[in-house]
Give the backbone structure.
Amino acid sequence: QLIDSEAPESSVVYRAVDFEHSVHLDAHGNILAGNGKLDELASLAAYVCRIASLVGRQLSFGDVTGVETTLATGTFFMHRETNGDIVCIKPRAHLNLIQLRTQLNL
C-alpha cells in the first residue's frame, strides 16, 4: 500500500493523484485497487514481476521484490509484497523519484 495513514511524520504520504497509473494485484492476479489504465498496467506488472523472479532465481538471487523499468511511455515501479501482492505505479513528473525508490527499496 503506497498511501500510508500511519506513516511517520518524516515520510511522504502519496495520494492516488500522484500517479498517472497505479494498480494493486493480489497473489492470483486479481485487481484489488488502482487508477488509470488498470488492465494494461496489471498485465505489465504481472509479466515483469514473473520474468524478474525467474531471472533472479536463475542467477541465484532469489525472488525479485522490486523492479524499476523505463518504457517509451515513462518510468514504472513494481513492488512485490511477501504475501505475493504486487503494486505497480507510474509516478507523475512532480514526484521525487529518488525518495520513491528508497521507500520501495529499489
Observations:
- The chain is about 25% helix and 30% strand.
- Residues 3-9 have pLDDT under 50 and may be disordered.
- The longest strand covers residues 19-25.
